[in-house]
Amino acid sequence: MDACVFCGLISADSARWIARERAAVAFLPLPGEEIAPGHTLVVPRRHTAAGVLDVQAEDLAQVIDLAQRVAQRIVERLGATGVCLLNASGPGSGRSVDHLHFHVVPRYPGDGEDSLPWPTGRSGYRLAGDVQELLST
Fold first, then answer.
1. What range defines the domain where residue 109 resides?
2. Torsion, Cα of 73, 78, 84, 90 (10° steps)
3. Structure confidence by residue, pLDDT tens digits, 62-94
4. Residue 61: which CATH number?
């Protein structure tokens, strides 16, 4: 965990804080790394190496609650018309930090579809079986 940049920020109290709560924190990305004005990262204080795949349910609930409140503030105070809530979890997801985090990315009038922070390609992977059957409990 010592190498985790988010654990380091939390431990050193050195982020540009938006909120610091018991189980979750919210902070701004490094200057120049934001996708839009108000882009905020929301993370649990407790380290999670595989994101939503290994986070404790209580921590996930606190992170989502904080992400919702941050999103509401972005719309109310910054004039955004909506937000994108983005997460990548697990080693094959393309994530850049091995600690659960959600990006709350504001969307503003005139942003257009081309700036939407969402994967644009489609997977070529094919399953041997029915997806609904394989996923249903």
1. 5-135
2. -70
3. 999 999 999 999 999 999 999 999 999 998 888
4. 3.30.428.10
